[in-house]
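Hi all, a correction to my earlier message: I attached the wrong file for DUF3999 family protein. Here's the right sequence:
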Amino acid sequence: MKTKYLLPILFISIMTSEVMSRPLAVQNFKYKKDIKISGNLSPNGIVKLTLDEDIYKHSFYGDLRVTHNGEIVPYHIQNAEEVSKNTEKVKPELLFSNKKDNLEIYVIELPKLPEGMNYTKLSVNNSYDYETSVTLKLGDNPDQFFDSKSVFLYKYGNQSTSEIDLGGTKHRFIRLEAEPGSDLKFPSAYRAKQNKNLYWEKSHSVANPELADNLCKFSFANESQSAFQILKLEFEEGNWERQVTVRAKIDKKEWDTVFEGTVSHNQAEGVNTEIPLSRTISREFEIQIYDGENETLHLKNVITVQPLEEVYFFANNEGNKDGYALYYGNPYQWSGNFDPYSYPSGDEIKNNDSKTATLVAEIENPDFSFSVLYPPVSGYLATGFFYLGVAALLFLLFSILKTKRSVLAESESK
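and the right structure:
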């Protein structure tokens, strides 16, 4: 190959590598946590990182950035779950089977579910090769079916679809409508414990409220700056309905309304009333209850709840565990917008083992500084240049008007 062709190709490859590697302007983030990955890390393996309370105290959520040797690593974030690994195999009972010329119908009953368990899969087999489309319906009794979906089943030699995903249902009755000649058998079904979302919970002492006309206000200092997205309230009264407003401090001076609406409680539903908030709070907050002409409610206990969240990302091509870090603490940073193929999908997370990563102690980013290219300095400069431009235009306009007046005055004097 001639030299004149080598140089353009080399230039293009260099430019492409620079585009693909996205360095992060780490000086714009006030806080940093190094990431420690346990065990051996395979190239492009999936890494799971659980966020801790420091993140919610000092981040602005959308400003989270995972890096490897200073380059941005795309990630996916979701609520953490306690995934049940234990499954039970049970035998279904075929209640009804009808094979017509244009349709085969099967009705199956599954054994009663123990508390806290769901049905996950139904095994299907056949003694010979086949393919068929099946309509699956689920219900609480054989007279009425609710959920419905279509499933394609096949067996081609050693390759087959031998299980139907039941989606973690509590319905015990299954109706299947298959194409004629399918001759399906259902040897077993599987059930497992429900996956549980994980949370931080913190109880807050309730002080005497401030009373006003038709209003009762409870204030909470939240001195530990415990982060939360949900409030659990417990009252002495069992049944009630009130207009409730929750306000919280979002910075040193500014307050914001994070919930406003009508809340009702029935003692048959449990002890606590849950109120979801519009944003994560980690500072002091207050609860305002409008009683109207009703008797004042007596608040006994307040629990703040923060769902645990996990970040998933792909490891580097070399499988190197060193050099990973999490940056945060930039109120001007936009939320991450990554190509959906650049981070693990839900199926990849579910079907592959993830390497667990942990966050080390929080430090203030030693590289943190204000840059003229990024907010807030860039905003101040832009505003300054705007007003400077306006001032220059006004000065120019004033000069033109002054010159015109001088010319008019000279012409009148003549």
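Sorry for the mix-up. Confidence is low (pLDDT under 50) at residues 1-20.
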